[in-house]
Automatic annotation (TrEMBL):
One of its GO terms (cellular component) is cytoplasm. This is Arginine biosynthesis bifunctional protein ArgJ. Pathway: Amino-acid biosynthesis; L-arginine biosynthesis; L-ornithine and N-acetyl-L-glutamate from L-glutamate and N(2)-acetyl-L-ornithine (cyclic): step 1/1; Amino-acid biosynthesis; L-arginine biosynthesis; N(2)-acetyl-L-ornithine from L-glutamate: step 1/4. SUPFAM superfamilies: DmpA/ArgJ-like (SSF56266). NCBIfam families: ArgJ (TIGR00120), PRK05388.1 (NF003802). The lineage of its organism: Bacteria, Bacillati, Bacillota, Clostridia, Lachnospirales. PANTHER family: ARGININE BIOSYNTHESIS BIFUNCTIONAL PROTEIN ARGJ, ARGININE BIOSYNTHESIS BIFUNCTIONAL PROTEIN ARGJ, MITOCHONDRIAL. Keywords: Acyltransferase, Amino-acid biosynthesis, Arginine biosynthesis, Autocatalytic cleavage, Cytoplasm, Multifunctional enzyme, Transferase. It comes from the Bacteria.
Amino acid sequence: MKIITGGVTAAKGFRAASAAAGIKYQGRTDMAMVYSEKPCVAAGTFTTNIVKAAPVKWDQDIVYNHPSAQVIICNSGIANACTGEEGFGYCRATAKAAAETLNVDENSVLVASTGVIGMQLPIEKLSAGVKAMAPKLQGTLEAGNDAAKAIMTTDTKEKEVAVEIEVGGKTVTIGGMCKGSGMIHPNMCTMLGFVTTDACISKKLLQEALSEDVKDTYNMVSVDGDTSTNDTVLLLANGMAENPEINEKNEDYQKFCEALNYINTTLAKKIAGDGEGATALFEVKIIGAESKEQAVTLSKSIVTSSLTKAAIYGHDANWGRILCAMGYSGAQFDPEKVNLYFESKAGKIQIIENGVAVNYSEEEATKILSEDAVTAIADVKMGDCTATAWGCDLTYDYIKINADYRS
């Protein structure tokens, strides 16, 4: 696998564009379009929140009940959630505008929205944005990067990644972009993510690959404990790499899954590290667990603990908060056997052994915890299963951002 520069336009046949439609934000782009030269097989995973935004319902129908997709339209600023039949009608109107402008099937247009819940979209501006973007579609890396910027809300940076692999003697490319900074919590993919590939793969295996991979990537991310109404990850494959179709779970399928995992893991970590107000990516690894389920439960409990997140912000090795979070997780373990370590670019230090503090240097611990990416490693000594969760520290700015989000 080769890591390359790019995002949604890295794979053959994919183009992107962006526009400043003035939906909510002024002086910046707020709409993005991703288009494939050929119809794609599509896969998707969506929020588990009972309150689902109109675009989620629209996309679920397209992904699950139609053979192909070719276009993604995304706006930022207004989420089109809790908007009733009118909001769902705007999804159809957006798809119709794209279908007419690009000469594609209306049922091949996927839509996504992010932003304030409860507001109706200004559909005239949305339709105008669609028509403005179509002539600007380009397959350049710059066009993909501009699209990644256009879907941001409280994100501080665009998020994209791309890789190349070899399948059946052909170069296959997978690229992706996402947005996510707040209202980030499992399950499902607590964000908007769009992944494109020129791989030739069956729709069935594409969906299986994505559904399985989100368990260890996006479902292991939490910023603030709030699961969005709009969470959507879409994966489009147009087959333009011309590799032999991946239609069984063979070596080629495993290669594809490994590359997809790298894409999704990288994007998941970018979301966690860019959590609203965050100053550090907080990674939690559970090792020595007796089952995957136990490891997942423990790691998520630690990474979502507000007290632990606050300690990370303060560069404080307050290990009692971590052990406490493990204790209320619901997973069974022996606290008197737990070893705990902190690690970053500045080094690694053991904090507790068999549930009791060791004679460590607070100064060294603070130095390790002062980096922009910090890992806590807890060994429960019960088996050989592991899990990793990602989050961020909890800062004063998180309150500031969310106190006036609608204004």
